Amino acid sequence: MSKLLEIALGLVTGIGGFLEAGSLATSAQAGAAFGFQLIWAIVLGTICIAFLVEMAGRLAAVSKHTLPDAMRERFGVRFFTVPLVAVVLVSFLVLASEIGGVSLALQLATGIRFQWWAPVVAVAVWLLLWAHNFSLVEKGVSLLGLVTLVFIVGAFKLHTPLNEIGTHLLPSLPHQDGARYWFTAVSIIGASVSPYLFYFYSAGAIEDHWDESYLGVNRLTAGLGMGFGGSIAVAVLACAAMVFHSRGIQIDRYEQIPLLLAEPLGHWGFILFVASLGIACLGAALEIALQIAYLIAQGFGWKWGENLKPRDAARFSLIYTVMVFLAGLVIFTGIDPLKLTIFSMALTALSLPVTVVPLLILMNDPLYLGDNGNHWIANAAVLFISLLACIVAIVAIPLQLMGGS
């Protein structure tokens, strides 16, 4: 019975934790600009993150190592600094965009500019991390994140043609604006395959004391949880395609996105969108701040754990404290949260080989996994998607910048 409860809670975490500022913004922009054409990018990213999350959980359950801990032990501190710097940089930008997402939700609710909410949000995130344990972050906020299922209701109410979704499950060439098309595709994959998801997941498995008896729970959580989360992202894209693309409207401000639900659901759609944006971004901000602290503390062998009192893991607590307030300061400067979100997602895709290849090496090392190592299909799928996203990002990011975006 306890395992069934773990599976149920794991699925809730997957649904509530998948959709955040990155997935929401990239899916909405993709639907508005290109209709249903970029559904394949969400599917590809969802498959990849499901593989990676399952691997990170299996590594933790079998080897009793978190991913950063195993990387430092296997490759040495000097090599470890490369993914450390890449993941911290990208995660910090994503953390700022999530705080921006919560601040924008509060702006939509109150009319007060998002910059003024940024310090308030930063303090709230810090207090939740400082005063509560891992269960609140992992499951409490994710339970609230189930409000994002409203996007599936919205897509249904808009009479989304299922044949359009099925037609675009496989990649297709753009009908126009190729640079923006590929940049958006890369951003979607970056949003789906954010390193914080599988780094955080491996630490969570250790915090929850997983062992090999949890391998089945891990597979179901990774596959079904990420799959349901990806379905919500597809629903966001479908709503944007029906509401914006059909009218030739582009999304260039967060303030436009509530129309996704306001049209099919009226005033309650607006309220539910604000709740979805605020709760999803708050949950992601908590997870990312913790993930950065996990990464640095585990990588250097410091004491860590959200279940520990802050004074018992002082350096760990100091890391998330500094990161949260610096990220809040970035948003307080007035930087456009939507542009920051989209660009940080593209940079995430660019960093994937640095973060994914070491994991694949560990997953094929019998010293860590024994007989529970990877099959070639998982290795090939993740490596292909990661390298493809990186190569496209190398081309698409400069093209998009030169195009004036």
Q: Number of DSSP helices?
A: 18
CATH superfamily: Hydantoin permease
Number of domains: 1
Span from first to last CA? 52 Å
Looking at the structure, the CATH topology is Hydantoin permease
Compute the CA-based radius of gyration. 20 Å
CATH top level class name? Mainly Alpha
Which CATH architecture is right? Answer: Orthogonal Bundle
The total of beta strands comes to: 0
Quickly give the structural class: mainly alpha
The overall average pLDDT, rounded, is: 84
Question: What's the story with the biggest beta sheet?
Answer: none
> What share of residues is helical?
over 70%
Which consecutive residue ranges, at least 5 long each, have pLDDT under 50? none
Q: How big a fraction of the residues is strand?
A: under 5%
Order of helices and strands: HHHHHHHHHHHHHHHHHH
**Silhouette:** globular
